[in-house]
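Section 3.1: Structural characterization of target chains.
Under the original work plan, the team committed to producing a structural model for every single-chain target entering the pipeline before any wet-lab resources were allocated. The record below documents one such target. The sequence was received from the expression subgroup and is listed exactly as submitted; it comprises 196 residues.
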Amino acid sequence: GDFWSWAYSDLVDNATRGVLAEFLVAQALGLELDPKAHWEPFDLETPAGTRIEVKASGYLQAWAQRKHSVIQFSGLKAKAWDKKTGLHAEEATFNADMYVFCKQTSVDHDQYDVLNVEQWAFFVVPLSYVKEKGLNSLTEKTILRDGVTSVGFNELANEFSRIENQEVLSMPKQKTARKVPGWEPFESSIASASET
C-alpha cells in the first residue's frame, strides 16, 4: 500500500537494507517469522533457542558517493532492553550466540538488485569470535584476514549449522596472533557470490 511504498521502497537505504538482510537470513535458515520487534537485543532466534544477530553492509549508498563504501559491520554491542522491566542494561554487551554478516556485493547502481540473492554474500561467526575481537565494529578486511570466508544464500543454512554445532571454534592461527586456550582452527566452506 501507500505506506509501504513511502517508508520502505528505497532498498539502497542502510536501515531498510538491514531489515531485508534479516529477512533473507531467516528465509535461508527456514525460520518462521513473527512481526519484527525492533526492541529485541537480537534479530532472530532458532527453534533451539540460538540467538542470531544480523548485520548488513554494501558498497553502494542512497546518497551521492565519490567512492564505494568500506564493508563494515557495526553495532555489535548494545545495551539490552528488558521487556519485563522496560529498562536498558547499564553496559553494552554482545547479545547473540551467532552473528551473520551480510554483504550486498553490487558495485554499480544500474546493476543493483537487492532482492537478487546472488548479489549477497554471508559471513557466519560465533559469539566466541566476536567476543575475542572485543570490538563494536568489524570490517570485511578484518574478517577475511582472520580466515573467515563467505558463502552464498543457498549455502548459508549448512554453514550456519556447521559453525553452530562445532564444540570448539577458533580464529585461524597467525604469526602475531595470541593463541586462545582451547581453540582449534577450523576451515570454512567457500561459495562465491558475485563480488566475493
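Confidence is low (pLDDT under 50) at residues 167-196.
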